[in-house]
Recover the amino acids of this structure.
C-alpha cells in the first residue's frame, strides 16, 4: 500500500509545493490540487482528427448508409458519429489530497486519482467510495466512460493511439454488447463495424427482418422432393413464412414475405445438369420473379471446361440476375486441385469466361468458413466481383456482400421441405439500382 501510494503521489509533490501557481476550486475547505490539462478530462472541443474527410472512409460510410435505414439497430448512433459527435464525460479536475490513492477508513467522494486492477492510473469520479466513471490514458489509447472496480463497465468510448475509435458497451474491461467501431489501423481499407461484441470479438450486425427487406430463395432438384414422382413448385403461392431457427428471433412481426428473386441451379462440374432448371426458370419469369442461374464448382475439372458446360446448358436473357459460381470445396478437395492458389486460378477463369459471354460480372457464392480461411487473401477477386455468403447465424457476415444466405432451413409456401432463404444487402432502392446496373442486357 505504501509503495502504491508513493507511485501515485510522487508526480504531484512538485505541484503541491507550488500550489500558489495552480488554480484552486472556489471555497475549497480541504487542501487540494488541480490536475494539469494534459492529465485531466479532454475538452469537448478536443475531438479526434476529422478522419471522415478521407475518401476511403467516406466510401465506407456511404456503403453503410446505402444499405441501412432508421429501422436498423445503431443507425442513429452512426449518424451522430458521422456528424462528429463523440462520447464525452466531464470530471472536475480539482482533487483533494485524500482522494489521491486509497486510505484506510476513508470513503472517497468526487474526483479521485487511483489505480485500476492492472495498475494503470485513472482519473475517476467516486460515489460512496465506489468508482462510477473514469478516464484512463496510456500508450495504447484513452478510455472514458462508465467504470467499476474491475475496469471499464457500462457505456464508454476508446480512442486508440492508431486512430481506431470504439463507442458502446463494456464489461470487465472488454467490449461486450452493442457498439460502433471505425477501424483505421490499415488506412487502405478502413472499416465501419456496427453490431454485437463478445469479449472484444466482433460478432456482426444482428439484422432485423421486416417486410421492407428484399428476400429471395435458391433452388435445385431437392425442392422437387425425393422419390420417383417429383413434387411440383406452386409458383403462384410462393411466400416466405419462416427464416430458419437462428433468424426467427430477429423477425419483427410475423414472417410473411414475397419472393423477390430466385437462383436456380443449372449445372455442376462438366457433366451434371439440373433437369428441373428450364421449367423452373420459365415459371419464375412467368410469375414476375427475378431469376438467375448458378453453377456448382467442381475441383475435379478445369474452370474453362466448367464454364463451357454452364454456357451450353443455361439460359441468359435480358433482365436476368448475374450468374453465380457456387464454391463449397472441402480442404481435401482443395488440396487435390493443387492448393488454394490453383483453385482460385480456375475460379477466375470461370468468372472471366462467363463475364465475357454474358456481359455482366458473375457473383461468387461461398460460406463463412471459406471467407475466413481463403478469401481474405484474394484482394483482387473481392474488389472485382460481388460476393454471396452463406452464414447460418443470427449475425450478418462482416464483409461487403450482395446476398446473404441466412439459413438452410427456411420455409416457403408452395415448396415442400426446407428452402435456403437469402436476403439482399440493401433495401428496395438499392435493389432497383442493382437490377438496373448488374443484370443481363
Amino acid at each position: 500500500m505504501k509503495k502504491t501510494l508513493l507511485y501515485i503521489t510522487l508526480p504531484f509533490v512538485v505541484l503541491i509545493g507550488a500550489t500558489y501557481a495552480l488554480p484552486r476550486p472556489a471555497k475549497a475547505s480541504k487542501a487540494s490540487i488541480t490536475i494539469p490539462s494534459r492529465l485531466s478530462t479532454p475538452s469537448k472541443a478536443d475531438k479526434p482528427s476529422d478522419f471522415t474527410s478521407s475518401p476511403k472512409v467516406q466510401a465506407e460510410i456511404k456503403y453503410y448508409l446505402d444499405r441501412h435505414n432508421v429501422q436498423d439497430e445503431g443507425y442513429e448512433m452512426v449518424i451522430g458519429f458521422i456528424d462528429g459527435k463523440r462520447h464525452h464525460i466531464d470530471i472536475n479536475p480539482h482533487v483533494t489530497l485524500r482522494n489521491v490513492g486509497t486510505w484506510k477508513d476513508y470513503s472517497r467522494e468526487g474526483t479521485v486519482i487511483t489505480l485500476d486492477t492492472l495498475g494503470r492510473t485513472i482519473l475517476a469520479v467516486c460515489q460512496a467510495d465506489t468508482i462510477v466513471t473514469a478516464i484512463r490514458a496510456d500508450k495504447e489509447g484513452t478510455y472514458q466512460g462508465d467504470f467499476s472496480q474491475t475496469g471499464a463497465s457500462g457505456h464508454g468510448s476508446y480512442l486508440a493511439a492508431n486512430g481506431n475509435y470504439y463507442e458502446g458497451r463494456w464489461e470487465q474491461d472488454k467490449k461486450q454488447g452493442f457498439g460502433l467501431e471505425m477501424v483505421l489501423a490499415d488506412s487502405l481499407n478502413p472499416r465501419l463495424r456496427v453490431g454485437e461484441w463478445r469479449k472484444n470479438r466482433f460478432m456482426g450486425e444482428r439484422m432485423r427482418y421486416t417486410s421492407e427487406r428484399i428476400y429471395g430463395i435458391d433452388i435445385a432438384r431437392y425442392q422437387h422432393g425425393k422419390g420417383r414422382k417429383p413434387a411440383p413448385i406452386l409458383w403462384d403461392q410462393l411466400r416466405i413464412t419462416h427464416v430458419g431457427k437462428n433468424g426467427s428471433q430477429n423477425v419483427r412481426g410475423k414472417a410473411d414475405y414475397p419472393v423477390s428473386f430466385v437462383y436456380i441451379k443449372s449445372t455442376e462440374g462438366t457433366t451434371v445438369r439440373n433437369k428441373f432448371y428450364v421449367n423452373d426458370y420459365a415459371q419464375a419469369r412467368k410469375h414476375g420473379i427475378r431469376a438467375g442461374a448458378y453453377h456448382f464448382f467442381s475441383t475435379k475439372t478445369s474452370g474453362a471446361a466448367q464454364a463451357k458446360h454452364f454456357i451450353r446448358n443455361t439460359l441468359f436473357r435480358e433482365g436476368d440476375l448475374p450468374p453465380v459460381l457456387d464454391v463449397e470445396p472441402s480442404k481435401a478437395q482443395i488440396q487435390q486441385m493443387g492448393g488454394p492458389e490453383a483453385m482460385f486460378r480456375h475460379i477466375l477463369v470461370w468468372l472471366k469466361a462467363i463475364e465475357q459471354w454474358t456481359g455482366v460480372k458473375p457473383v461468387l457464392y461461398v460460406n463463412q468458413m471459406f471467407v475466413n480461411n481463403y478469401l481474405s487473401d484474394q484482394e483482387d477477386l473481392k474488389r472485382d466481383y460481388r460476393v454471396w455468403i452463406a452464414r447460418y447465424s443470427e449475425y450478418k457476415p462482416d464483409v461487403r456482400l450482395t446476398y446473404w444466405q441466412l439459413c438452410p432451413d427456411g420455409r416457403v409456401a408452395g415448396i415442400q421441405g426446407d428452402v435456403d432463404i437469402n436476403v439482399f444487402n440493401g433495401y428496395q432502392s438499392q435493389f432497383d439500382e442493382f437490377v438496373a446496373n448488374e443484370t443481363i442486357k
Remarks:
- The first strand starts at residue 32 and ends at 34.
